[in-house]
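FAQ: What does a ligand-bound record look like?

Like this one, built around adenosine monophosphate:
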Amino acid sequence: MQAVCVFCGASPGRDPAHAALAAATGAAIGLRGLRMVYGGGRAGLMGVVADAALAAGGEVYGVIPQALRERELQHTGITRLSVVPDMHSRKAQMNEWSDGFIVLPGGIGTLEEAVEIQSWSQLGFHRKGIVYLDEDGFWDPFFALTQRMLEGGFLRAPHRAIAVRAHDPDAAIDALLAWTPSTESRWPA
Ligand code: AMP
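The answer part, i.e. the structure of the complex:
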C-alpha cells in the first residue's frame, strides 16, 4: 500500500475531538511514509488532515472540482493538486490514486463518497479496503443501517464486511494493510 485516501467533513464539526482525530490520522499516514489522497481543500477537517500529513513529512495529493476551488478553499501547500471538471471525476481520480480508504466523521459528502466506493467494491470494480474511523461511535448508525439491510435481505454478509471499523488512526492503517478482499460476487450464480 502506497497511498491512503481520506474522506472527511468539509466542516470542522462542533466537537474538537473530531478535529483532533483528523489531525492524528493525517500525522499517522505521514509518519508511516504513506501518501495521502483527499479532496484538495483547506475547509474543515479536510484542511486539518492535510496539514497534519504534511507536517509529519507525508506527500499529500488533492483532487478538487473546478467549481469548489473557492468554496472549499483550494489548498496551495500540498504536493500535488488535480483540478477536475466535476464530482464524478473527483471520485474516479481519488480512487485511481489510492490503495485504501479511511472515512472520518463528516456529513453527506463524506458518506456519499464512502458509500459509492463501497458500491464499486461490491460490484467488483476495485478490491481496496474501506475503514470507518471514529473514537466516539460516530459511525454506529451507519453500521446499524447496514445490519438492517443485511437482515432485510438487501445486502449480503461479504458485502457488508467490505466496510470495517477502527477506533484509532494506527488501527485504521493496520486494517487497510491487513485487508483481504472477498471473492464473493454481487450477483449470485
Ligand atoms: P461533507 O461531508 O458534506 O462536509 O463533504 C465532504 C467532502 O465531500 C467535500 O469536499 C464535498 O465537496 C465532497 N463531496 C460531496 N459530494 C460529493 C460527490 N458526489 N463526489 C465527490 N465528492 C463529494
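Follow-up question: can I read anything off the structure? Yes, for example: The pocket of adenosine monophosphate is lined by residues 9-11, 39, 41, 46, 68, 72, 87, 90-91, 106-110, 112-113 (CB under 6 Å).
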